[in-house]
Specification:
The protein is α+β, with helices and mostly antiparallel strands. It has 2 domains: 4-146 and 316-323, Diaminopimelate Epimerase, Chain A, domain 1, CATH 3.10.310.10; 151-313, Diaminopimelate Epimerase, Chain A, domain 1 (Roll). 17% of the residues lie in helices and 43% in strands. The mean pLDDT is 96.
Length: 338
C-alpha cells in the first residue's frame, strides 16, 4: 500500500484550531454541501480520524474538506469535522476558511472590503472580509459573516438528571444555553473539568428532546453542544458575556463559538435582553472575542420566527503541513486519550 498523504493549511480563530484540507483528498461528492457531508461520513471518516486523532491532532481538533458550492452563488463549500464526526455549522471555521481563501487567491481580495458567499451544511453564509494591503500582500484584519436564520426552539427546558434549565436555540446547529451560576459554576479555566462533565450530561439528556429536532431536514437535528454563559456587563443595546461551548463528546471550543453566538443572540432577543440592532461582545474562556449583532427579523423557517445575525472575528495562519500515514505504522489512523 502507498502511504496516505494529506496536505493542510492550519489556522486558529480566537484560539480555536482549524485544519483545512488542501491536498491529497478528492472533494466529497453530492449535489449540495449537506449531501457531501453525508457522503463524507460514509467515505472520508478515515481521513477525518487521521487528521484529528493523536499523534497528528488532538481531542479538541477541528477541520474541514473544501467542496464545490451548491451553485454559482457561492465561491466554495465547507464540510466540517471534529474528533467525533461531522458538524452542520462552524462559525470559527467559516472565518478561518475566508481568510485562507483570500490569502491564497481562491477569492480575489479587494481593499477595503471583499464580499462573497460560502456554502456550509446548514446553508449559505454571506462573508465580508476587511483587508489592508502594502501594495503586494493583502492582510485580512477581520471577517464577518451573516449566518443562516436563527431561532429559539424552547425556553426554560428542565434537563433530566441535571438540576438546571436550558434555553435551546438554533444557529446552524442546536445548542443548550445554561447560565453557569445556576449550578454554582463560573466560566473560567479552573472550572473546566466540571463544565465539561456537566456539559456532556446536559447534551446527552437533551439528545432526543423535541426542541433539537430540525423542522425541515432531520440531518440538521440533534443537540450539538452546551453553552455555559455568564454576563459581564449590560447596557441597553450593548451586552458583554463570557461563554464556553462544550460540544461533540466533551470537546471544548477555545473561541466564543460562532454558530453558538448566533443561538445566544436569538435567545437574548426573544428574552428582551438585546434588541434588534443590538451588539453582543462575546468572550471565550481564554478571553478572546467575537462581536455578534442582531440585524433584524429574518424569514420564518417552518413557522419559527427567526432573526438574522452577524458574527465577526479574526483568524491567523499557524502552519502548513503534510501528514503521512506509513503502511507499517501500527497506530494507523491514530487514537484519543480524552
Amino acid at each position: 500500500m502507498d502511504p496516505l498523504v494529506v496536505d493542510t493549511a492550519d489556522y486558529h480563530t480566537a484560539g480555536e484550531p482549524f485544519r483545512i484540507v488542501v491536498g491529497g483528498v478528492d472533494p466529497p461528492k453530492g449535489a449540495t454541501v449537506l449531501d457531501r457531508r453525508s457522503w463524507s461520513e460514509e467515505h472520508l471518516d478515515h481521513v477525518r480520524r487521521f487528521l484529528v486523532n493523536e499523534p497528528r491532532g488532538h481531542a479538541d481538533m477541528y477541520g474541514c474538506f473544501v467542496t464545490p458550492p451548491d451553485d454559482v452563488g457561492a465561491e466554495f463549500g465547507l464540510v466540517f469535522f471534529h474528533k467525533d464526526g461531522f458538524s452542520t455549522a462552524c462559525g470559527h471555521g467559516t472565518i478561518a476558511a475566508a481568510v485562507w481563501a483570500l490569502e491564497h487567491g481562491i477569492v480575489p481580495a479587494r481593499e477595503p472590503e471583499t464580499t462573497f458567499a460560502i456554502d456550509v451544511p446548514s446553508g449559505r453564509l454571506s462573508i465580508t472580509a476587511l483587508a489592508e494591503t502594502d501594495g503586494t500582500t493583502h492582510h485580512v484584519t477581520a471577517v464577518r459573516f451573516v449566518n443562516v436564520p436563527s431561532w429559539v426552539s424552547a425556553l426554560d427546558v428542565s434537563v433530566p438528571g441535571v438540576d438546571c434549565t436550558a434555553d435551546v436555540a438554533y444557529g446552524g446547529a442546536f445548542y443548550a444555553s445554561v447560565e453557569a451560576r445556576s449550578l454554582g459554576l463560573s466560566v473560567e479555566p479552573a472550572q473546566l473539568p466540571d463544565l465539561i462533565s456537566i456539559g456532556r450530561e446536559i447534551k446527552r439528556a437533551l439528545a432526543d428532546h423535541p426542541s433539537v429536532r430540525h423542522p425541515t431536514d432531520d440531518r440538521l437535528s440533534g443537540c450539538y453542544g452546551t453553552i455555559w454563559y455568564e454576563t459581564i456587563e449590560s447596557s441597553g443595546h450593548h451586552l458583554s458575556q463570557r461563554n464556553v461551548t462544550v460540544f461533540a463528546d466533551g470537546e471544548v471550543d477555545r473561541s466564543p463559538c460562532g454558530s453558538g453566538t448566533s443561538s445566544r443572540l436569538a435567545i437574548l432577543e426573544l428574552r428582551g435582553l438585546l434588541p434588534s440592532g443590538g451588539h453582543l461582545e462575546h468572550r471565550s474562556i481564554i478571553g478572546t472575542v467575537f462581536q455578534g449583532r442582531i440585524l433584524g427579523e429574518a424569514a420564518p423557517v417552518a413557522g419559527h420566527r427567526t432573526v438574522s445575525t452577524e458574527i465577526e472575528g479574526q483568524a491567523f495562519l499557524t502552519g502548513r503541513h503534510r501528514f503521512i500515514l506509513h503502511p507499517d505504522d501500527d497506530l494507523g489512523y491514530g487514537f484519543q486519550l480524552r
